[in-house]
Structures are given as C-alpha cells and as structure tokens.
Task: structure prediction
Amino acid sequence: LPEITVVAFLISFTTLIPVLFFSGLTHTNEGYASYAHMGLGRKAGMATGFIYILYSVLVLPNIIMFLSSFLFPFTGIAKNYEIFFYILFPVIYLILIFIPLSRGLAWSLKPIVILGMIEIGSIIAISLFMLTTGKGSLKPQFSILSGNFWDGVIIGILMFSGGGSGIFLKRDAEETIGEIKIPLIYSYALTGFALILGSFAVTRFLGNNMGDFGSDPLILFQYLGQYGGSAIIIFFIALLIISGFNLTL
Result:
C-alpha cells in the first residue's frame, strides 16, 4: 500500500504539469475544457466540456448514495423504514449545500477552506495515532512486476485526481496570471503528504491484518474501535460527510 501510493502520487503529478503550464498563460474558470481547447483544438475542448457536464450531473447523487451506504448501517433504523432514511438524508444534505451556495461564490469558499483544513488535519492526526500504536512491519514487500501492484497504482491515481480543481475559480481570484501555480503545487504536495502518511499508518497499524482490510476496508473501524470505541466510528462518519460535502461544494 505505501509503495503503491508513492508511485501513484508521482505518476499523477504528470496530469498536473499541463495545468501548471496553461495556468501561466490565461485567466479562466472554464477549467480543463479551456486547456484542452488551447492544447488540442476546439473539438477536444468541446468533448472535455461535455464530460464535465455529465460529471456534474452524476456527482451529487453518487456522493449522496455513497454517504448513505455508510450512514444507514450505523443509524439503527429498522429495515422497514429505510426508505424514509434514503429520502430524508438527501433532502437535508441538499438544503445544507444550498445555504452556502445561495450566499455567492466568495461566501461558499469559506466553508470549503475550513472543512478542507479539518479533513486534512484529521487524516494526519489519525495517521500519527496509528503509526505510534501499530506494530506491523513497514519493510517493502512487493514486486513491481506484479499485476496486483499496478492494479493498485491505477486505483491509487484516482486518489490524487482533481489536483487542478482550483483553476475553475481562477478568473474570480485576484492573482495575476501565473500566480495560481504555487497554490496548486502546495495543495497537491499537501494532499500527497497526507495520503502517503495515511498509507504507511494503515500498514503499520493493521500489520498482519492487512489481508482483512483488503477484502473489507471497514475492518479498520473494528480495530480502531478497540482504542476509541464508538467515538472512532462517529469520527470517521463525520469525516466522510465533511469530505463529501466539500467535494459537492
């Protein structure tokens, strides 16, 4: 897991290079569509734009379904009433999303920054806890020729996707052309640090139980629960909601 995360981080940086290049040439909040247009032509730009329209339509229901699948097992709601949960939760979620959006762009950025700092800080804190309490070995145990290794790298690359999301706000920012590069690099490096640290921490904490984690990632709750009980589960659920809420915004 740690080696996969490091390799995925390095490979994913190549997707950030064109973002850094084009951000030094133009002010735009059209994002990747405008960059594809500038680099590959009008048709590529239009195709990229349509992909983002499709993504925008699907991302909100996907996030809601993802969060619901985690929340429902811990709510204690009887199975006969689960339909009410799956209706009530999306309604509450959409209302909470609408509140900052209705106040405008500048106001919406405030919860994004605050929740993002909480999310990164929490990941680093729980990772340090797992590193100090775990007893597993961190000696490299992988083969770069293994199919499983590269399957993991492909999934790992998805962890670092969206590194250039800040460019969508570029035209509305006060920075001059080219200054957006530095925050993009900082944000990518901080994300990489948090996730690489987390991968080492999980490996150290679970040790020989990593096989169980591979088949059921939620097993991590069970082992962490030995230290913090139900508070750990509540902590992770809150973190999932914060992450999903931030991504939606």
User: Anything to note?
Assistant: The chain is about 75% helix and 0% strand. The chain has a mean pLDDT of 82.
